[in-house]
Amino acid sequence: MTAAINEAATTIICSSKQTRFDIKNPVYQELDIEGLNITVTSAAKPDVKAKGKARAEGLEILTNASLKLKGGVHYALIGRNGTGKSTILKAIAQKLIPGIPIQTRISILQQTSEEESSNAATATELASGNGLSVLEEVIDRATSRNEIQREIDVLSEAIDGQATTLAPLRALRQVQHDRLKKELFELDKDARLRSGTRGMAARKALTAFEKKVAESIERVSQTDEEIDEETIKEETHAASDLLAELQSQLEPARIADIEIKARNILSGLGFPKSNLEKPVSTLSGGWRMRTNLASVLLQSTDILILDEPTNFLDLLGIIWLQKFLLQLPDSGPNPPTVVLVSHDRDFINAVCQELVILRDKELTYFRGDLVSFDVSIRAKKLYLGRMKDAQDKQKAHMQQTIQQNIRQGKAAGDENKLRQAKSRQKKLDNRMGMEKSATGGQFKLNRDLAGFHFTARAEIEIPTDEKGVSILLPDAPDLRFPGPLVSLEKVTFKYPTSKKSQPQPIVLQDIDLTIHMGDRVGVVGLNGCGKSTLIKLLTDTTKPTKGTVTRHPRLRMGYYSQHAVEDLQALGRIAPEFTALSLMTKDVDSELDEGELRGLLGSLGLPGRTASDVPLTKLSGGQLVRLALARLLWKCPQLMVLDEITTHLDFHTVTALADALSGWNGAILVVSHDRYLVRRVVEGEKDEVGSDEENEEDEEEEQLRRRTVFLLKGGGMKVLERGVEQFAESLEKRVEKLLAS
């Protein structure tokens, strides 16, 4: 069965196998969907052909995959940027996949940039005109309070106003008709998604319901003369009953309980109490994303889908969300299934019990965290590599024997030798391959290689590197004479005020920081602690109120802004003709030729036509991060200041980036809420499954390299002796208090 939905200029087409047995009252317990195909196409009307299989030109996301979700289990969907993770989550949330019960309650937080979140919220605000506060918005979206209140207003105005005796009847019929239209939409989707016995039943139910809607239209359109007194009396009484029922749903005690939960969630996500009464329209995109996340967490649901929920959260909010999700299994008899996408390795390892790996248009499953997964992949590569080496030696020996038998058979006219050679060649061509099944048992043709194949055994395929594209950073040039790259001495910064009588708020006070070539510096702290101000002082975009900032006269600094991706997206909208290569060509102004630019872009994962033909607006967030890196690396900086660089990357690319930064010879200052990145790049922690081998030069360089993690708090900066984990432990204690309140 096939379903499709239009998303702006694109269409998501889904098809899957379905049982043709009649299942009564299907409800969500778990999903086990086979033969799942998902395609994204720009065609407005996809060409759906025989047997319900979507045949449309477009980007294939999944081909003959299996979607398996068990009730109450937490899953992490992992895969490289651009493979379609968000599309799969959207298809699940909108129940486009045949086999998802129509009654299933699904809540989703969709991935969005700060600018997209701001634009979407503004559009919603203009459309609704409701001007709700943060707290009201969260409660309304989680409980449909606004819709219930709308029905109450319609009915109460008709009953209390008594403009005419028919007013309550008219109001009741309009409310009922609006509800029927919503139900018709769901039944129509259900009928399109089902096949076989269930599909026939769904279509019969749809036909019957369409008649019901038609009758409702006739009732709404009846003239006053066509309605008798008995009907007026009955429906006026029914309108009063419905009004009482709706008002009971908004009882102050019930709403008060929901409001307490909403306040606790918003507090955990970092909202100050003073901001809860602010209109949503006054918030930035990042705070609006937190508002959306709070409303999703407040809803009662069967499947909770979170696409990059840690974007725009500081470490306190990330740890709170971890704890909140870990408490869900104890929240009731039917805890929700959680499916999330995140670039934060620590967050995934803490929250998720199983991994769903999207690769080569297939979904595979692994029970365990990312560390266990990486170890298993490494062990599998080692095992299969040894098996393939042994088999290659065996094949070479057999080939040598075959040639020898052919020569001897032809020389002596020995038919037995020739038949023996032919038999061995057949074995070599047809029966060499996997000797063990995926479970480790003896390979069996009818069990382990279903379908038609040219050989009796599958080839030994060694898994390729799962870390995504490799990232190569050009070496930083040497300084002609020694000295610190940048130094802050007793630096204080205060924002200026319009009135002299008002005290200037202190953002940073008496900050001392010195960075030498090769140093690794990490800066952590909660949102609003002054990290952005510190970066502005380092990059000379802001002057200190007191103190001195000195820089090496030959210093080249590369600054990656946390808004770099949004800035490139905005540039792409202003100048649609810009590609990565053309933008870089404009930046370098003939200092590098096209070959050198392509080499730099290719080393960062933007090769060939991706760099030269794809406009900026069509590049993924991860690709734009690589472009932003290229724009600062072509200058060969000695110091890189990286502000939240992992936000738009998948976790594979975060790992590759951490590897590249760890071995770079320049100095790095990292501002990040990603604990893994800080540990790997700043603290020098080794990759969990990486090689520990280092040559003598690397060891000497490592001994000279200074590694420091600073905590910004209350305007001051102090060294964390145990690094980012010390900061995380202090926040966990705060989170425990928040959850206990």
Architecture blueprint of SSEs:
Blueprint: E1 2-7, E2 10-15, E3 30-41, E4 59-70, E5 74-78, H1 85-93, E6 106-109, H2 114-128, H3 134-143, H4 145-161, H5 167-193, H6 196-221, H7 229-249, H8 252-268, H9 285-298, E7 303-307, H10 315-327, E8 337-341, H11 345-351, E9 354-359, E10 362-367, H12 370-412, H13 415-430, H14 445-448, E11 486-494, E12 506-515, E13 520-524, H15 531-538, E14 546-551, E15 557-560, H16 564-574, H17 580-588, H18 594-603, H19 608-612, H20 621-633, E16 639-643, H21 651-662, E17 667-671, H22 675-682, H23 696-704, E18 707-713, E19 716-719, H24 724-740
Parallel strand pairs: 5-8, 5-9, 6-7, 7-8, 13-17, 13-18, 15-16, 16-17
Antiparallel strand pairs: 1-2, 2-3, 3-4, 9-10, 11-12, 11-14, 18-19
Helix pairs in contact: 2-9, 3-9, 4-5, 4-7, 5-6, 5-7, 8-9, 10-24, 12-13, 16-20, 17-18, 21-22
Going across the major beta sheet, what is the strand order? 6-7-8-5-9-10
Average pLDDT, all residues: 81
CATH class (first level) name of the domain at 487-493 and 505-555 and 641-653 and 667-741: Alpha Beta
Strand content: 15-25%
**Helical region count?**
24
Q: Please mark out the parts with pLDDT under 50 across 5 or more consecutive residues, or reply none.
A: 43-56
* Count of strand segments: 19
Helix content estimate: 40-55%
Biggest β-sheet strands, sense, barrel: 6 strands, mixed
> How would you name the CATH homologous superfamily of the domain at 487-493 and 505-555 and 641-653 and 667-741?
P-loop containing nucleotide triphosphate hydrolases
Rounded to the nearest angstrom, the radius of gyration is: 32 Å
